[in-house]
Write a structure and sequence with these properties.
Distance between the termini of chain A: 66 Å
Number of strands of chain A: 12
Strand content of chain A: 5-15%
Radius of gyration of chain A: 26 Å
Helix content of chain A: 40-55%
Order of helices and strands of chain A: HHHHEHHEHEHEEHEHEHEHEHEHEE
Largest sheet of chain A: 6 strands, parallel
Mean pLDDT of chain A: 87
Number of helices of chain A: 14
Oligomer: homodimer
Shape of chain A: elongated
Chain lengths: ~350, ~350
DNA sequence: ATCTAGGGTGAATGCGCTTTCACGAGCCTC
DNA sequence: GAGGCTCGTGAAAGCGCATTCACCCTAGAT
């Protein structure tokens, strides 16, 4: 910058103005400066600017990454499916945030969280942004507590661990309730089995609550826990869960359920495959539903009835909240619940 | 930081050491500092650190975004499909770069490019990173020229506009040539039609060259240009192109082609739908191929024969190149060509 | 008891920019 | 023709950290 100033015969203040506020400099002077900058290959230092102006123009996102980064080639080679599906969630958030951020003139800094010492990636991100979003359960609450005192943080899709933070969830409970209601009222189904997972996310729990509520509303027995728990919320485990459910009713005299409601789409897709292998027809013999609305849900046979989450909007809303809070740091914590919509397809007996 | 130093009774130099090089500080002192930091909610400023140390620990990515950010809700509501598919490319690069970056201790700053004055997003990114990757045709060559004098830049998937930059491409030509050869030699097809687009990417052009080479190698007539050009490389346009191709042969006495080779998967998928509507069977009546290997290509009926691009690896390699150049700024420009692989599925008559 | 090493710490400098504040030159007003 | 204006510019003071360099203190060697 000093070089540019010298070369164009002005002071560094003027050079700065050319970049920050071009209109405040005479056109002729501006041209001189810009030309000098071009000749010298001048690239303004974001760090210096950030230091001096105390804003960075960058928003951040911390998200979990389930895959071990060192097992890269393995993951890429084999199981492109699950990987693909898992990607979708954070990828869509990234995309949503990126777009909204751009609309507001921000760039986006992303980092999958890693645990670490004081110099963890989270700290790195936190120090370089004007505000950031955190996917639930990716950053230790203690760290968040500290960081959120310095800059806006919005929590995405999880329980509200820190109550003075803005946070956004999707209407998991309402969505699953509505879906269940649909099965009961519109399809006349009575024996419903909800499939959760061993290690359940808060989202999955909320969905189960929706299921319970719908059962209660319809006067059906209200299970206190999922009928089956898959090991993880993956396709393979979903298939196993479906098998387990059917085995159970075949061996004993227990009647087979009329519907299986999975806590997410991936499990439901796996179940569809398992059922096909067994010769159980969907939806004639049994209805199957998922949750999330991943692209794959529409492509499987039969197309999966599910609850569509506005994931990308989650990202966009996160940015909106950050921008708003940046503009008004004092305002009360905001808690948003994004609406979901039941997508009725063939797997429940619709269309 | 000054506050932390004061509160823990040390100098700022020691506080700095606690974060940068914990081992150089006595454990007891370190604890004091860390506790003070916690109490004060201290978050180190990345800008200041960047300024002082002259490195940011961040890598960047500039990519194009075809969708208008202001048309957001519209895009989200309607055409979730195309959008989904388009996302994949840059999303996978993002994911690949993010992983590789994390492996090397870097965070990733992303920004879809926007044209603008001296304060464009590109400049913003450039000033905040240690190096970055650019998707072809997203940043004006002149800007790149300037920026690349200051920090490592690697160009992704395009022509080598600036020859002193590192750059990575995928083997478009080789892939399409191999695919075409497969159709000719293994399936005995002779009348092949390549479908390009009006505004073609260098990638699409390279693919067409591969097609030409295979035709020449087989002693078939070598077309000087694509048989049809779609308006854009989208699903809808692909369908139109397929229709146009068939209309042409039905009206006139020209024989219908035995195979349609599309410049990318999206167009091919659209074509598949158009053909189904017309009652033309694939692959019995006509073979169809794509390029890219997007997930959707495997899910359509019939599954699409295509050429799989290692997109995520593109991102990873980009990071590797950046890291290497950061370690050795003087080394000669590197040019990488990533191998592709023909994925034979039902749409060409295989399996 | 003196000397030497080396680990632990503080003082001071500068990284490259933004941002007052002050200043001069031209313009208008009365 | 003097006072007030605005516009364009320069001087200088930080922004929060990393990093010498010098210093002190303790331990082991002599």
């Amino acid at each position: 910058m000093y070089d540019v100033a010298e070369r164009s015969g002005v002071s560094i203040a003027t050079v700065s103005r050319v970049y920050r506020n071009p209109d405040s400099v005479r056109a002729q002077t501006r041209e001189k400066v810009m030309e000098a900058a071009r000749e010298l290959g001048y690239v303004p230092s974001g760090s210096a600017r950030g230091l001096a102006s105390r804003t960075t123009g960058v928003l951040g996102l911390c998200f979990p990454d389930y895959a071990d980064p060192d097992a890269e080639s393995a993951a890429a080679a084999s199981d492109a499916d699950d990987d693909q599906a898992v990607m979708l969630y954070s990828d869509q958030i990234i995309r949503g945030m990126e777009r909204a951020a751009r609309r507001h003139g921000y760039a986006l800094l992303i980092a999958a969280s890693l645990d670490g010492g004081p110099e963890s990636l989270v700290a790195k991100v936190a120090g370089r942004v004007d505000g950031f979003a955190v996917l639930a359960r990716t950053v230790p609450t203690a760290d968040l507590e500290v960081i959120s005192r310095r800059l806006p943080v919005v929590m995405l899709a999880g329980p509200r661990e820190i109550d003075h933070l803005d946070h956004i969830v999707v209407a998991n409970t309402e969505g699953e309730r509505e879906l269940t209601r649909h099965l009961i009222e519109d399809h006349g189904l009575r024996r419903l089995a909800f499939v959760g997972a061993e290690e359940e996310s808060p989202d999955a729990q909320a969905r189960f609550r929706g299921f319970q509520e719908a059962c209660r509303d319809a006067g059906l027995p209200v299970p206190s826990r999922p009928e089956v728990r898959a090991g993880m919320m993956t396709q393979a485990e979903g298939a196993l869960a479906a098998d387990a459910l059917l085995d159970r009713s075949e061996g004993t005299g227990v009647e087979r359920p009329e519907a299986m409601l999975f806590a997410n789409d991936q499990m439901a897709v796996g179940a569809l495959q398992a059922l096909e292998r067994r010769g159980v027809r969907v939806p004639e013999d049994i209805a199957v539903t998922g949750f999330d609305g991943i692209p794959l849900s529409r492509l499987v046979r039969p197309p999966l009835t599910t609850v569509r989450q506005p994931i990308r909007q989650l990202g966009e809303q996160a940015v909106e909240l950050l921008v708003e809070r940046l503009a008004d740091p004092g305002r009360a914590p905001v808690s948003l619940e994004l609406p979901v919509s039941v997508t009725r397809r063939a797997s429940c007996g619709c269309g």
